[in-house]
Structure to design on (117 residues):
């Protein structure tokens, strides 16, 4: 499938999931996450949903809870909102990029502080 179309579908899914988590979800698990991106496979069989959270929880446990408890519910909500023939299965994955970026920034600041001495 065309990569532009896949990115558009991924963007629509991310937007709808963000709206559901922010406004409709009654589960505290969903209210405490932020959707950072969605990657959709070429056959639209799977949507990998990247998320972050401000809570200090084990990320693997949080991923498991989201995938086991809420992925099916969210898939049915997405199917009602987006006009595509087959709604992809949703798999949550913690997004490490923010923590990685913060670590890089901290290292750069340490280098600058040492150079200033």
């Amino acid at each position: 499938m065309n990569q532009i179309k896949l990115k558009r579908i991924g963007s629509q899914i991310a937007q709808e999931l963000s709206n559901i988590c922010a406004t409709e979800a009654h589960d505290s698990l969903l209210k405490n996450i932020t959707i950072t991106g969605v990657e959709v496979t070429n056959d639209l069989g799977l949507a990998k949903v990247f998320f972050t959270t401000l809570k200090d929880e084990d990320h693997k446990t949080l991923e498991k809870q989201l995938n086991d408890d809420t992925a099916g519910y969210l898939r049915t909500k997405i199917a009602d909102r987006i006009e595509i023939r087959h709604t992809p299965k949703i798999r949550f994955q913690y997004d490490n990029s923010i923590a990685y970026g913060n670590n890089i920034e901290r290292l750069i600041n340490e280098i600058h502080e040492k150079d200033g001495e």
